[in-house]
Write a structure and sequence with these properties.
This protein has 360 residues and is mainly β. The chain is 10% helix and 46% strand. It has helices at 5-13, 127-131, 133-142, 185-191, 332-335, and strands spanning 21-22, 35-38, 45-49, 57-69, 73-78, 86-88, 93-95, 99-105, 111-123, 146-147, 150-151, 155-172, 177-183, 207-209, 214-219, 231-240, 246-247, 257-262, 273-281, 284-292, 297-303, 308-316, 323-329, 340-346, 354-358. Strands 1, 2, 3, 4, 9, 12, 15, 16 and 17 form a 9-stranded antiparallel sheet that branches. Strands 5-8-13-14 form a 4-stranded antiparallel sheet. It has a 4-stranded mixed sheet with strand order 21-18-24-25, with no helix packed on it. The longest helix is centred in the middle third of the chain and has 10 residues, at 133-142.
Length: 360
């Protein structure tokens, strides 16, 4: 099966930004407030409506470099070999290129993503998604993205977008691939965000090579041009849990919730612990209890996304009075990234045991 470039790109970005989706092809339709569908397998976004009614956008201008590379991708400056004079949009004159950068890729499907970031635009009133739920549900039903329970996962709203003023995405089509970009040193520096986005010079490049080995998406789109508008390189997305439960940072299909209770985080955990999980559902309350022996773990799976008012209580068995601790989540589908959560139990008798939520 061919792996989507956007899926590879998103996975690379999530090593740093856990809630983000990549925009590999620099799709300009991805804007804060845009309504659409994300294919969780490919990471591709399909626009349904340009903007959610009533949405408000806040804009944060920035000036920073964006630089992500797969393992085995390198970039170096090499001797310029472009002959003759070429029009340089950075200066408006014909110039002899004085700088060339070469990227090398060890493996097929390796990625580099380098941009000059111009800012981040964000939906400032996320409550509008709940206020406009009926409108969103109607759009979802028209596209078979809803059931009797409500909106299906993957249909929702772009909540924030990172914009770039210039730069490039590149992926190798084969192992040991390479490509070069030539131009003026100042133009290339601004293209890749080395000098930020401010100043008199403009981001540009005047020549690139080896397009047969590497797929690229550049800003500006063509050699000899200057970008006129920033484009989105990445974004965050909100969806719903098959009902009115909002998932503000949707990162992929959840289906059900899973909770792991682990006493193996520390080799010195000696307490045996009775753990009880209780929550409300549309069909009534649910309660389950398990016993966790020191150095072991247990899990609560197949928890419905509609679970609310959830409480996990740990009763550490001790001589005399047992020690009780608890954690609570009002809407875990909204709070647990990816629909999973881990709780660690630690402590050596007769010392005080601890119960800690692991947010990762």
């Amino acid at each position: 099966m061919t792996i989507s470039r956007n899926r590879i790109y998103t996975d690379l970005l999530r090593g740093t930004y856990r809630t983000i989706w990549g925009n590999w092809g620099l799709n300009p339709a991805i804007k804060p407030g845009a309504v659409g569908i994300i294919d969780a397998d490919s990471g591709d976004f399909k626009l349904v409506a340009e903007c959610l009614p009533g949405v408000e956008i806040s804009k944060n201008q920035q000036s920073r470099k964006w630089d992500f590379k797969s393992t085995g991708v390198t970039c170096r400056s090499i001797n310029t070999s472009v002959a003759g004079l070429i029009f340089d949009p950075n200066t408006g004159a014909e110039v002899k290129p004085d700088a060339t950068l070469e990227w090398s890729f060890d493996k097929e499907n390796s990625i580099t993503s380098e941009f000059a970031i111009s800012g981040e635009h964000t939906v400032s009133n996320l409550a509008i998604l709940n206020d406009q739920y009926d409108w969103l549900l109607a759009q979802a039903r028209n596209l078979n993205m809803a059931t009797g329970a409500g909106i299906s996962e993957g249909f929702g709203v772009v909540t924030s977008v990172i914009y770039a003023s210039s730069g490039l995405n590149a992926v190798s089509k084969k192992s040991k691939a390479s490509f070069t970009v030539s131009g003026s040193a100042s133009g290339l520096n601004r293209l890749l965000g080395e000098d930020g986005i401010n100043g008199k010079g403009k981001a540009s490049y005047v020549f690139s090579s080896n397009s047969s080995e590497v797929e690229t998406h550049t800003l500006p789109a063509k050699s000899g041009e200057v970008a006129t508008e920033p484009l989105p390189v990445a974004y965050t997305f909100a969806s719903f849990a098959g009902s009115r439960v909002l998932i503000p940072s949707w990162v992929g299909k959840i289906g059900v919730l899973n909770l792991l209770v682990d006493s193996k985080a520390s080799s010195f955990t000696t307490y045996s612990t009775k753990v009880t999980l209780s929550y409300q559902t549309p069909t009534g309350p649910v309660e389950e209890s398990r016993t966790v022996i020191g150095g072991s773990s247990t899990s609560f799976g197949e928890i419905p996304l509609t679970a609310t008012e959830m409480t996990l209580t740990a009763e550490f068995i001790s001589i005399g009075s047992n020690i009780r601790k608890s954690l609570r989540w009002n809407t875990p589908a909204s709070e647990w990234l990816g629909g999973t959560r881990t709780v660690n139990l630690t402590g050596t008798w007769p010392g005080a045991p601890q119960m800690a939520e692991v947010k990762r």
